[in-house]
Every structure is written in structure tokens, then in C-alpha cells.
Predict the 3D structure of the following.
Amino acid sequence: MEELVIEYRSAKVFQPGKPKTIQKICFVELLSRYFFCLLFMSVAAKPLAARTCFSYNTVKVNLSGEVKKKVFPGPPNYQDIGSGDTLEEVWLLKLREPICTQASRKDELSEAENGVYSIQMVLVKSQYRKYKKLIKKPIIATGTLFHGYTGHHHTKVLIKVENIFLEK
């Protein structure tokens, strides 16, 4: 057995005088490992390269996902509804694919974020009535992103909603 292991190790070095079949097997093994490595690297790198990070407050974005309602503790302490904090019901956009955001030099409150799957939606009263039929449905939300900065902001990234469309 030990001789077989030594023979296999020395065959990988492609020594002259060794049988051609051993050299061919090792060459094929080497090529297959190289190909697998290249394939893995190209597949793993694609999502990172294809993803663009969004800017805050400047560019209108279209994000697809599903609207969910969620209740959070509100004032006065923003910690526990059972201890007397009021209820704050918010709409969250649950994204299918994570996004990232870029910090802005012009806005001290903005921070870069990665892997964002959930975004709080900021709407005016009339929009809540207009879009309530779209809860738990696949939608596209259009608006501008901003970073959370108060106790009323329950996600790191929020979207000031202009429109919501049912995704087809």
C-alpha cells in the first residue's frame, strides 16, 4: 500500500520514464480541479459583481418584494409594549434579493449598509388607504432611500414611497 501512495505522489510530478497512463490520469485530475475552481469562482463572484449599491436621498429606486405589516414598541421608551410603550404599526418591504447602500459625504446620518433584506416603508395617510390591497402581494416600490435616525425608524434603511405597483 505504501508503494502505491509513493507511486501516486511521484506520478503527480510527471517524472520522465513513468508510465504514460499514470501521467494522463494525473493530468486529467489536475485539469478537472482547475476547471472546477474556475467554475466555482465565476459563480461565486457573479452576484457580488452584478450588485450595485444604492445612494441615499438622490436617486429614485425601484425595489421588488412583498409588503408586510409589523408592530413595534413606540414612545415613550421604544422597548416594550407590555411596559406601556405605544404600538407603532409599520409597513416593511421584504426584499427578494438583498441590497446595499452607500454612505453620502453630504449627509452625516447616512451609513453604508450591506445585506439589507427588510426596509421600512414611509408613506402618507392617503397612500396607506390606496395601497392596503397590496399587502402580502408581490410589488415594486418606487421612491428614495434614507438611513434610519429616530426611534420611529425600525430598520436601518427606509424608503420614502412615491408609488407601489403590483408586480406581474
Remarks:
- Residues 42-50 have pLDDT under 50 and may be disordered.
